[in-house]
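Appendix C reproduces, verbatim, an entry submitted by the partner laboratory led by Prof. M.T., so that reviewers can inspect both the input and the predicted structure.
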Amino acid sequence: MIRALNEQSFDALVLDWHLRDMSGSEVLKRIRGSDQSAMPILFVSAHAREEDLVSALHQGADDYMTKPVRYLEFVARLEAVARRAKHRAEQSEVLEMDPYRVDCESRTVQRDGRSVKLTTKDFDLSVLFLRNVGQLLSRVHICERVWGHRVLLPSRTLDTHVSRVRRELGFIPEKGWRLTAKYGYGYRLQQLGRILPVLPPALA
């Protein structure tokens, strides 16, 4: 198992106290002390004592289930620990995409090395677009990720935020970017590449 963890990446890991080569506790300790320390881990074991549950959680497990497990609950808990880990990673992520540098932890944006001041929602909207360059994002998806609910905002409200982000970050063809709307659906940010200035012809 340790060899596989060193050679491959995984979205999440399910452990038991008793494994073939070493205890689940030892595997957990090694993972939490390795380069993959942020990997979400769900303990699933027949050990139902409270001391075992507390021990696993104190050692770094994200959740604990006792056997026999119910399939739907198992899937839901595994998805939950993976989702929380992804959220934590996103919160500390640094996006670097020329000419932008976005620090998600400090919530700061730089464009060509200069700070850009954005409102809270405009920052979240900018990060969403930059994480999904080339992808058509629906209004429902945008509202859910930025405003935290699936209820659609009034068109003018969302359009105003998008227009402001386009202006502040220079998401325009002249700057090598295009942020466009698909009528009745949503928005897409595209990277067109650097646009070189047109120079006058050289003098003979």
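Confidence is low (pLDDT under 50) at residues 194-199. Additional entries are available on request from the coordinating office.
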